[in-house]
Each structure stands twice: as structure tokens, then as C-alpha cells.
Amino acid sequence: MKAGLQVKLGQQVTLTPQLLQSIRLLQVGSLQLEQELHQLLDRNPLLEQEPEEDDPPPTSLDAAAADTAAWDELPDPMFLSGGSYSGDPDDDPTARIAAGQSSDPRQRLLETLQLQCSARELAIAAWWLDYCDDSGYLEGEPALLAAQGAEQTGLPKQELLDIRQRLLLNGEWPGMSADGPAENLLAQLHALPASAARLLAERIVGEHIDLLSKHDHPALAVALGASEAAVAEAVTLILSLQPHPVEQPPEPEPAFIVPDVIVWRGNSGWQVRLNSRNVPKLRLCTYAEQAGSHESLRGLLEEARWMLRSLGIRNDTLLKTARVLVQRQQAFLERGDEAIAPLTLKEVAEEIGVHESTVSRITNGKYMQTPRGTLELKQLFAVRLDGAEVSGAAIKAMVRRLIEDEPSQTPLADEVIATLLARQGIRVARRTVAKYREQLGIAPARQRRGASSAAVKGRQVG
After folding, report:
1. CATH number for 403
2. How many domains is the chain built from?
3. Angle at CA 170, nearest 5°, toward 166 and 175?
4. CA–CA distance, 75 with 96 (Å, rounded to integer)
5. Between the CA of residue 397 and those of 156, 290, 436, what are the distances in Å?
6. What is the pLDDT of residues 323-335, one digit of tens each?
7. Does residue 191 share a domain with residue 144?
8. In 3-state terms, what secondary structure has residue 239?
9. 318, exposed or middle or buried, with CB in 10 Å at 0-12, 13-18, 19+?
10. How far is it, in rounded angstroms, from Cα 125 to Cα 168?
11. Residue 163 is part of which domain span?
């Protein structure tokens, strides 16, 4: 046998543990974060808790401010950053991440795929999941996204599409990365055992979903050349599927809420700080660097550093987001619901320099203690109503106030409310007023008049 040398040029990819860890920490609120940090202190001897201070220093870190905190802004897989990986291709760095159940299904799916995919495939899967919304649907057309990904990464477009197909037919969440309801339902049907009902259901979803949406079983039977009984069985099978790739179980309401952010009005204006009273502050032990020179403790030192940096990114992002929300919604904090301004995730994301998905994650399930009460951060976002300069939430509050102040004997009809709003410069249609009134659980004017008359007669009889 003749010995020889052969040079090969190739790319290896790695999914950074900082990415996975930082995404997970963006999700958690104060109570869960407190529990996780106490568990980490018990598990990692190279971390210790800082002594409590009466006046906690600002949590915005210069080092963290230099980083970005979104899924797509965190350190990229190597193929996205243009770098190369020279280590052992069989060494999966994600295996060194401390175990923990994430509230983000995309993160949990990545952890599952670690056992099934190479590092290259896992990084491509992470890229696709970044373009999925919280329900698991793609936020774009697959072919266009694949072309964009191929241009960014230098990888073949077909390879990107193949990995999406694996996500789509994944056993844990079939339909993940689907481009719409039909593809989601077909992926879920594919995961079921083969049967005549399944084959007919696949034809209904793939060819006649318009008739399915109309519940027109006779027309489906004619179009498919099948009996109405067979169609009914197939439709029942379809209705048993999940409407979205990811169906999160409803979380139980907490017995009490610990605010993540404290807001108050001082002499110099509105002030914002993180609530760190219940969350332990961590730091490296004094002997951590020396201990890290030992092979057996090196992994613990890396874990400790990653956690401290991820916490810095999380806290910095939360504080920046809260400050923008308070700045944009000062009128709401001072005057109430009618003064809430139109504000979107995209506007906040652009102001703090992150992706809007980051703002969505950092505000989800987080609470702010204000002079107006403890509010969920999501409440400070409001959609602008078409043709109006105020938000829909503000108009809804105005509708409530007008109805609360109406004369008891002559309740205001929806048309009258729309006219009164127009006099204030807010032009909305009668049907919009009716929609908001129904959302507020308020009956139409004729029913309110009847209820008022009945109450008056009751008082006269009494």
C-alpha cells in the first residue's frame, strides 16, 4: 500500500452555546430566573453570590452593550460568520450546556436535534427556526428564504431546503417551519400510520382545502369520488390535528407576580431599573481562574463565564427595552388608557438595535411595577388604527368612558359614539365602535336602555 498525503478544503460549523443559552434566558421571568440561578450556584462551585446592597448599581453593562441579544444577533454559527472550525468535528459544544427546560419550542427542538444531526445540520436548522414565528410557521416563502440563506452562508440552496424538510417532518413537532396551514396539516398526517382515511385526508388538504373550509362534505365526496361516510371520517381525522405546528400548553396563573422592572417618577423625570431584589447576583469566585487551569474544572469555568455573559446580555436588553417603553408611553403612565400611543415591536427593536423577535421574547411574561399598577410589558404595545393618529387600545378606552358617562335613559348608539369621537378628531366607522363595545362585553344601546328601564321600574315598585 502506498502512503500519501491528501489536502481537502471544507467547512465545519458549530452552534455556539452562547446562542442557545442567551435565547433561553431572554424568555424567563424573575421567579424562574431566581430558581435557575440558585440551582446553578449549587451545581457550579466556581460561582458565588455577591452580597446584597441597599442601592443596587445599574445593571447595564458596557461589555454586554457591545453584544446583541437576539437570536439572529447573537454569535453566529461558524458558516454564518465566515469563519472556520478546526477542532474535532465530532465534538458537539452544545452538549456542554447545562440542562434546563426552555419555554421556547424552537430551543427545545434544537436540543432534541442534537442527538440526530451533525453540527452543520444543527446550525442550518437553527437558521431556519430563526425565521419561524412562535407558532412554528415560517415568516416568509421557503424558496426565497433558502435563496437568501444560500447567499448569506455560501451553502447550496438545496441543502438548506433539505434541512427544512427534516424540520417539517420531525417527529416531535411535525409541521415545524411549514409555510402555511396546509403544509402543517400534511406534515402531521404524514406522521400518522397509513390508512385509507389518512390518504383521503391528505388529498382533501392538498387539493380541496377550500371545500374543507366551507364544510361542504357532499362537494368533497363528488370531487374525490368517495362516499360521504369516508369523507366524514377523513375530515374527523383532519380536525383532530393541531392548527399550528407548536401548541404550547397554557401556563397556570401565578399566585403572585414579581415585577421584573421598577418604574417611578422622580424629580428628573421617569426612572427605570431592574428589580434585582429576588434574583441573586452572581460572580466568579476568587479562585476561579486558578481552578480553571485544571482540566476537570475547565468546563465549569466556561459554563460560569457563559452564564454571567448571558445574564449581562439579558439584563441589558430588558433594561433598554423597558426604558424605551416608558419613554414612548409616558402619557399612558400619567393619564391612563386613553393616552396609550401606537407602538410596535419593530419600532422598539429599531431604537435599541436588535431584531423585533428579541423584543417579543424579552417582553413576553415580564412585568413592570408602575404608579399605575403592575403591568405586563406587552400591554405597552398598541396597534395604530387605520386612518387614526391614536392607538386602537386608546379608542377602546374612549368608547368605554363614553358609555360609562352616557345618560341612563338615553344610551348612546354606536353611530352616536362614532360621531362623538369624530368631534375629537378621531374618525372611526360604526362597525369599529361596535367591535370594541363587544370586546368590552357591553350590550347594544337598545339592550342597555331596556336594562335601565327595568332597573327604574324595579326601584319604583320597591
Report:
1. 1.10.10.60
2. 3
3. 95
4. 17
5. 53, 61, 9
6. 999 999 888 888 8
7. no
8. helix
9. buried
10. 11
11. 17-29+69-176
